[in-house]
């Protein structure tokens, strides 16, 4: 049965493929010449892998197609003649490459659909989660494909959970296109891919049986004496062999489509791995399912390779270039499979500091299939610049182990590791647990480039022998930025965050777009902030960030320069510097409060004022917002006793090292009701919202002079300066800077030092002194009459010992 007849037996498949061919007006051509197109494309001796090859193959196909149509015009059917004339006009309007790639891609899709239907019919309603369906062992017979071999593949692994890996980068186009052929691999679940490989192996068993029968007949013919039917038997053998060759070509073509699916899933996994560098969720264990696919593909291609070699032993003619070419294709396919299975499964830190230890690991997804684990190779690692990485990927530079040391852009200690095979989980990997980058060679900078923009990658490589030929495999890590000082971290993380979020699944290292839509960037920022702090951003937060990124000419696109190079309007720092500082402040000093929803965060002053003034609770309602004007600052906005909104000066990490945020809020009696960060929630009492974050304070104790230090202990409290205090007359009073250096106490401080206990109130002098002590404010003017009065009172009392200068 032809492929198109099998498609036509399923209405949904027929409709889907008809729509596909009708896109280019080729449906009539597909229907009219269905068997010829299938045989012509599937039996090609050359699979085009380059643009030149593609053009040559397409032109030859176009010529053969025209000849086929011209020969059809001699038919007596007038309707058919008319259709042929229309088809001839069609192929004149479409380029040869476009015509060929569309038809070839269509055959790939048809094979995919037919296999899916076959798998569904086999599995029925009771298809288990185990993709190997152990209750239905494939009935593969013949010496080429032994069922025990297939079971060895499936029994060596635990039954996987149904786990699909959906493409993240391009949701609209879930397939991945081949640049040469224009083919698209549809998105399928991994367990479906595994079923399809098993089905292909099952069907290949029929070819193995036919080959076995051919070999027997060939041996009989060689050993038999002359026979009157010898010539007929000889022609029969030639026809049988040609049919087997055609079947093998079809099987190989189907293998390529299956391999493309698995590679597509691996690329998706690696893309998710890059997204995880920004904090996105990542199911690392899905790599085990991908490895099962690689192991099954290796079993498939190994059986096919053995079959081709056996077929070549049946020598009926002197030369068989078609079969020789098929052998080369299968051998190359096996090599490509082995090379593509070598990956970095544990990435190194993407912001890498020199002279700092780090770890990474590589994994070979072929498990024990080729027996390489019996003589495990040693994996070496060097660091490469972006240009060096491009040479290996885009130019396919031949790898010479002896010359690679000179390609390194730095010096790494402990940069070799022998691969190990773990029998319990079938993982074949090499772990680098104690690497250290000692030196780095940097390229010359152009324009405004900095060292934090320069990308490197770890290059892992090794050499092994498979089927008597040597294979050199290598893989690159995700891009890394090398720094020598901690103050280079923020900009380095800008480079990495942008790359992880917006890199194409397939690209030249490490090409990246210089602009993205706000929709794309908002997702990346939300993932980054949410993973770092434990709570995602709200729609209002993201709207505020969008406004911060805009310039005079508003656009839906955000450029790399807007993101981290150009200072924001009226500011001396970039958007990323501001965003990164807030993220660090939240993580280091406000994590619990942020996760609990106590901090509004990203909201501008105008909206904060509007929201507070609309609050039904009025005076004492407050919220916390991140500062616009200071890096890594958080401020409090509250409704004062006059019904107006007051903004306190920002606090930074330096302030929270003295007194944490929750305790500062507890000290401010003007704060009563926390305005909710959730639009649908109601204000919450301050102590209810922040109570769990208050630190425990000691009970008041009598004033006691420490005999060792000669000091009286004190505690820090925060208060809001009134108009007129500390020289402040503005509506936004100055607040604590807490500069503790002797002789350099801030004159605008709002922090009061209290002794840890009160004096006895039964003594009148003691009562007055206690009240006086509570009024001492650090930062008062040196000649303040209040301070002079308190000092005189203390000196003339029994509490002279508590006065210090």
Automatic annotation (TrEMBL):
Source organism (scientific name): Drosophila mauritiana (Fruit fly)
Keyword flag Transcription: yes
Any one Pfam family match given in the protein's UniProt record, by short name: STAT_int
Family to which this protein belongs: Belongs to the transcription factor STAT family.
Primary location: cytoplasm
Location(s) in or outside the cell: Cytoplasm; Nucleus
GO cellular component, one term: cytoplasm
Subunit architecture: Forms a homodimer or a heterodimer with a related family member.
Upper taxonomic lineage: Eukaryota, Metazoa, Ecdysozoa, Arthropoda, Hexapoda
GO MF entry, a single one: DNA-binding transcription activator activity, RNA polymerase II-specific
Gene Ontology biological process terms in this record: cell surface receptor signaling pathway
InterPro entries assigned to the protein according to its UniProt record, in alphabetical order: p53-like_TF_DNA-bd_sf, SH2, SH2_dom_sf, STAT, STAT_linker, STAT_N_sf, STAT_TF_alpha, STAT_TF_CC
Hydrolase is among the record's keywords: no
Keyword list, A-Z: Activator, Cytoplasm, DNA-binding, Nucleus, Phosphoprotein, SH2 domain, Transcription, Transcription regulation
Domain SH2: 594-658
Protein known as: Signal transducer and activator of transcription
């Amino acid at each position: 049965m032809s492929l198109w007849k099998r498609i036509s037996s399923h209405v949904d498949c027929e409709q889907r493929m008809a729509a596909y061919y009708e896109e280019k007006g080729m449906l009539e051509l597909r229907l009219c010449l269905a068997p010829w197109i299938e045989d012509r494309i599937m039996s090609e001796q050359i699979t085009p892998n380059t643009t030149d090859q593609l053009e040559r193959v397409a032109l030859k196909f176009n010529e053969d197609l025209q000849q086929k149509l011209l020969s059809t015009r001699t038919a007596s059917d007038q309707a058919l003649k008319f259709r042929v004339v229309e088809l001839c006009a069609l192929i004149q309007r479409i380029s040869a490459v476009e015509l060929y790639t569309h038809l070839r891609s269509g055959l790939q899709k048809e094979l995919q659909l037919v296999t899916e239907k076959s798998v569904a019919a086999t599995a029925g309603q009771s298809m288990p989660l185990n993709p190997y369906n152990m209750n239905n062992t494939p009935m593969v017979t013949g010496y080429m494909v032994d069922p025990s071999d297939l079971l060895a593949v499936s029994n060596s692994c635990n039954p996987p959970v149904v786990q699909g890996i959906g493409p993240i980068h391009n949701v609209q186009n879930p397939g991945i296109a081949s640049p040469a052929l224009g083919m698209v691999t549809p998105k399928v679940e991994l367990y479906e891919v595994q079923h399809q490989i098993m089905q292909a192996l099952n069907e290949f068993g029929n070819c193995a049986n036919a080959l076995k029968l051919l070999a027997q007949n060939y041996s009989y013919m060689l050993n038999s004496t002359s026979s009157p039917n010898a010539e007929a038997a000889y022609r029969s053998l030639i026809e049988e062999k040609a049919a087997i060759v055609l079947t093998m070509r079809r099987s190989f073509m189907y293998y390529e489509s299956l391999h493309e699916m698995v590679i597509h899933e691996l690329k998706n996994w690696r893309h998710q791995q890059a997204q995880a560098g920004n904090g996105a969720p990542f199911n690392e264990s899905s790599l085990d399912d991908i490895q099962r696919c690689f192991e099954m593909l290796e079993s498939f291609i190994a059986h096919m390779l053995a079959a081709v070699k056996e077929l070549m032993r049946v020598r009926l003619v002197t030369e068989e270039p078609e079969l020789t070419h098929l052998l080369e294709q299968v051998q190359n396919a096996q090599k490509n499979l082995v090379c593509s299975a070598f990956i970095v499964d544990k990435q190194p830190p993407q912001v890498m500091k020199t002279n700092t230890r780090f770890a990474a690991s590589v994994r070979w997804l072929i498990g024990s299939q080729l027996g390489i684990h019996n003589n495990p190779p040693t994996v070496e690692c060097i660091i490469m610049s972006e240009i060096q990485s491009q040479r290996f990927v885009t130019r396919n530079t031949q790898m010479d182990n002896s010359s690679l040391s000179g390609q390194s852009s730095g010096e790494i200690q402990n940069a070799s590791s022998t691969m190990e095979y773990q029998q319990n989980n079938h993982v074949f990997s090499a772990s680098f647990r104690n690497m250290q980058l000692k030196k780095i060679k940097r390229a010359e900078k152009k324009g405004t480039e900095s060292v934090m923009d320069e990308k490197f990658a770890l290059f892992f490589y090794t050499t092994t022998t498979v089927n008597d030929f040597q294979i050199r495999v290598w893989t690159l890590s995700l891009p890394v930025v090398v720094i020598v000082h901690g103050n280079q971290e923020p900009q380095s993380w800008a480079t990495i965050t942008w790359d992880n979020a917006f890199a194409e699944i397939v690209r030249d290292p490490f090409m990246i777009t210089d602009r993205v839509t706000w929709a794309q960037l908002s997702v990346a920022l939300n993932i980054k902030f949410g993973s770092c702090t434990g709570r995602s951003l709200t729609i209002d937060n993201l709207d505020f960030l969008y406004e911060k990124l805009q310039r005079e000419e508003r656009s839906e696109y955000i450029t790399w320069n807007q993101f981290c190079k150009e200072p924001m309007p009226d500011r001396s720092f970039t958007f990323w510097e501001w965003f990164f500082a807030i993220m660090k402040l939240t993580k280091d000093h406000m994590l619990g409060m942020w996760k609990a929803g106590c901090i509004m965060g990203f909201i501008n002053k105008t909206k904060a004022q509007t929201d507070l003034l609309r609050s039904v609770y009025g005076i004492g309602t407050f919220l916390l917002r991140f500062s616009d004007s200071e890096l890594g600052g958080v401020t409090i906005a509250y409704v004062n006793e006059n019904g107006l909104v007051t903004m306190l000066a920002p606090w930074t990490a330096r302030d929270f090292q003295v007194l944490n945020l929750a305790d500062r809020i507890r000290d401010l009696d003007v704060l009563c009701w926390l305005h909710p960060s959730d639009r649908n929630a109601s204000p919450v009492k301050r102590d209810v919202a922040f109570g769990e974050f208050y630190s425990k304070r000691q009970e008041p104790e009598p004033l006691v002079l420490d005999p060792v230090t000669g000091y009286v202990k004190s505690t820090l409290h925060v208060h809001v300066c009134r108009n007129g205090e500390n020289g402040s007359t503005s509506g936004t009073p100055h607040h604590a800077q807490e500069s503790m250096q002797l002789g350099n106490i801030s004159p605008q401080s709002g922090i009061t030092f209290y002794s840890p206990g009160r004096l006895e109130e039964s003594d009148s002098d003691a009562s007055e002194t206690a009240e006086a002590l509570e009024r001492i404010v650090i930062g008062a003017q040196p000649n303040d009459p209040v301070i002079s009065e308190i000092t005189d009172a203390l000196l003339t009392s029994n509490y002279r010992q508590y006065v210090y200068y």
